[in-house]
Amino acid sequence: MTDSIPNPDRAPLPMDLATLIRCAADDSLSLEQADALRAHLADNPQDQARIDFERGLRDATAKAMNTGAAPAELRQSIETMFAEQQTADTVGPPETKSHSYWSQPRRVGAIAALILFAFSVVLIIQRPNQSNGWSAGLSQRVVSWIQTEHNKCCDSDKYREKKLNVVTVADAQERSRIDLGAAPTHIQIENAGYKFVGYGSCHIPGGGASGQIIYAPINGVGEPVSLFVQQDNGQLDSVATNNDCIEGIIADRSKADPGDQLYIWRRDGLIYYLITCTQNKAKPCLTSLGAPDNRISL
Fold first, then answer.
1. Residues 149, 154, 157, 161: is their CA dihedral positive or negative?
2. How far apart (Å, rounded) are the C-alpha atoms in residues 186 and 189?
3. Is the bond into 292 cis (omega within 30 degrees of 0)?
4. Is residue 291 classed as helix, strand or coil in its secondary structure?
5. Residue 69 DSSP one-character state
6. How far is CA 125 from the centre of its chain?
7. 226: part of which helix (H) or strand (E)?
8. pTM of the entire structure?
9. Selection from 233, 225, 214 nearest residue 271 by Cα
């Protein structure tokens, strides 16, 4: 991989590059950090691959954590390898920091066993989750991320305007088509009492390009609602068909009300996530957006 080259004409990064990349993979950048990263990627586009790798690693780990234990025979073979390498004269630093220590034949065997163990762990992590593509770990990350992003856009005009910077419906249709490969079937939901405010790209966990649309009540009374849209790569294959709409309540212990309502459905290669403050507000929005009538629990 080509090393990044700092641009002397740009301001220095707000943190070291490795930390910035990890924060980007976690979608936890501040507005200033996001601006700095965009400027850096403009000069070093190859670093986008590092962010994509970090996101893929998190998704793979979430899936692996939701699977059962490693096969018994694999576990036994690894334990046997380490047992064969164990000696009575276990040592630590400074001996283990010496190059000559690791050059001894028995140490080479230990290194080989360690490498094989690491390779085995990678295989376990990369093993597809046969039981449920929409794993518990991934679903929790998605739900938490969507609620956080929705709340940040509701609570901060500056954050919303910076992130959702496409402010006309026509431009949102074109931009979403570029981002997602297809524009959402419905973008305007004025017949539900909400007006389009803005669209912007985002990074919903689980892979696939994604974007967010936020709507505000036309009469100015009530809370905004957000529609997140993500490329459908089969994330919901094991839990929902194109005729289902998953619904659930996102509990917020800091508030007295029950929590935000979340609805998830899929259509024509896209997954839709609608988040609202109450069930009553959701119904007209779901109808306007063409969500399936068949409800199943989150």
1. positive
2. 7
3. no
4. coil
5. P
6. 17
7. strand 225-231
8. 0.64
9. 233
Give, as one character, the DSSP assignment of residue 166. B
| Residue that wins the pLDDT comparison between 114 and 186 | 186
DSSP line for 64-95: HHTS-PPPHHHHHHHHHHHHHH--S----TTG
Going by C-alpha positions, the residue among 229, 226, 246 that lies closest to residue 292 is: 246
pLDDT of residue 260: 86
CATH 3.30.200.100 applies to domain 136-297: yes
Q: Are 244 and 294 in contact (CB under 8 A)?
A: yes
How far is it, in rounded angstroms, from Cα 206 to Cα 136?
A: 12
Place of tokens 């063409």: 290
Helix axes 48-65, 105-126, angle to 10 degrees: 80
Contact of 56 with 233, CB cutoff 8 Å: no
What type of residue sits at position 31? L
Q: Provide the token pair at 107.
A: 């140490």
In this prediction, residue 43 has a pLDDT band, given cuts at 50, 70 and 90, of confident
The tokens describing 203, both together, are 């990074």
Whether residue 232 contacts residue 269, with contact meaning beta carbons closer than 8 Å, is answered with yes
Whether 184 and 272 have beta carbons less than 8 Å apart is answered as: yes
* Residue pLDDT, tens place only, 112-126: 555 655 555 444 434
Q: What CA–CA distance (Å, rounded) separates 9 from 42?
A: 13
**CB distance 204 to 217 below 8 Å:** no
pLDDT greater than 70 at residue 132: no
Cross-strand pairs, 231: 270
3-class DSSP assignment, residue 273: strand
Residues 6+ apart with CB under 8 A from 150: 214, 226, 260, 275
Amino acid at 92: G
